[in-house]
Amino acid sequence: MNNKEEQIKKKFQTLSQQEAPKSQLVRDCIRAFIVGGLICDIGQAFNNFYINLGFSKQDTATYVSITMIFIGALLTGIGIYDKIGDFAGAGSVVPITGFANSIVSPAIEFKKEGFVFGVGAKMFIIAGPVLVYGIGSSIIVGIIYYFITL
After folding, report:
1. CB of 68 within 8 A of CB of 96?
2. Where exactly are the transmembrane stretches of this chain (predicted)?
3. Residue 83 and residue 87: Cα distance in Å, rounded?
4. Which among 90, 94, 126 is positioned nearest to 107, based on CA atoms?
5. What is the pTM of this model?
6. Residue 98 and residue 73 in contact, taking contact as beta carbons nearer than 8 Å
7. What does each of the 150 residues of the chain score in pLDDT, given as a tens digit?
8. CA angle, 96 as apex, 90 and 100 as ends, to 5°?
């Protein structure tokens, strides 16, 4: 490289470092912790509510899951979950509501392409790999557990 190219490269690096947004790691971690904790608190409140209604622990777990998935999907559908995600970052990816968001978001985005090639084909574009590897790894762990306990 000649001298002029090196000067341009150094100037570009200097400018890009000056203009790059500063990391707000501590603030982002606090926001993620608070919002993730609030989501979990809401789930626990529903758990207590269903237990107080007299449901068994197994039924309560099912109803809490259904309720949290519904809330996550509803908030995604009306555009609120994206705002929560912008504020909380990783704190909004609490497994059950984050999973609902990862299913509903692509479905909304690709709705204009039709129900088969849009919604049906793209609905699991984000959650699909999670399901595949989650199910696959649970099968492997189950087989290993089976042979260990023989």
Report:
1. yes
2. 61-81, 87-104, 124-148
3. 6
4. 126
5. 0.69
6. no
7. 577 788 888 888 887 777 777 778 999 999 999 999 999 999 999 999 999 999 999 999 999 999 999 999 999 999 999 999 999 988 888 878 888 888 888 888 888 888 777 777 787 787 788 788 888 999 999 999 999 998
8. 90
